[in-house]
Amino acid sequence: MAEPGESVISRVVRVLAAFRGGEAELTVAAIARDAGLPMASAHRLVGELVRWQLLERLPNRRIRVGLRLWELAVRNSPHMVLRDRALPILEGLRAATRQHTQLSVLAGTDVVYLENLSTKYSPAVTIIKVAGRLPAAFTSAGMVYSAFGPPEVREAIEAAIPPAVTVDGPRTAEDLAPVIERCLTRGVAVVEGWVHPNVTGIAAPVRDPSGEVTAALSILVERDSPMVESTIPAVRAAAHAISRALGEETTRDPQLALLEYLVRQGTAEGHAAESRPTGTQ
Fold first, then answer.
1. Where are the domains of the chain?
2. Domain 8-72 is of which CATH architecture?
3. Domain covering 78-246, topology
4. How much is the pTM?
5. What is the dihedral of CA 198, 214, 97, 87, to 10 degrees?
6. Tens digits of per-residue pLDDT, 43-72?
């Protein structure tokens, strides 16, 4: 429920947070219920957000996230810069390993996925979605942050271990310790059956130009498959390649490169046509 003296911004954030996935469209009543607001307050806030195009009202009166909110979130976002620079390398890793491939960042004690490239060739189950969250304590990406991040990050993750969702899932900080120690030794975190009983997650750190861990690159492999060991070098190499890309001053825009190529081709063909004798094909 709304607290006395709560700011308008706090209420707006709770309205927007009602769109947490699952349903792309909500009624105002559902938004009010999820945000813990009186119906009249929710109706007024939704109306204002629609007016500013942060939400959209559909012909059936249901509400969805507006295009302008997406624009504001994406435009100049450092996470989108990270994702864009990493994407060609993620695609190469998926093609080489034929495994589900992800890029994630730490948000509090959760990991948030900036990209998830699935593949039909992998038998591993994936529940990961772009912009989805998982508890860091359950994921290989979270173990990367625990191993290579500041001590307070590891402490926070260990203090926020939720109830295990699988038989092998961690329940205490002692369950995380061996995985973190092996990660420090091998440079990759290997997590077996913590999110799904038949899936192993493998992750490596992506570092910014200062050397701090800024993201985690991960793949999902069928548990007990020979692919677990054979893909570790590729995961390490791909994470290192992304780290190097983040250190570059600029990244070549592939669309611009394609445009310049087409212009060159067109210019060359035009010059060739001008040089051919009249009447030739």
1. 8-72, 78-246
2. Orthogonal Bundle (1.10)
3. Beta-Lactamase (3.30.450)
4. 0.77
5. 120
6. 999 999 999 999 999 999 999 999 998 888
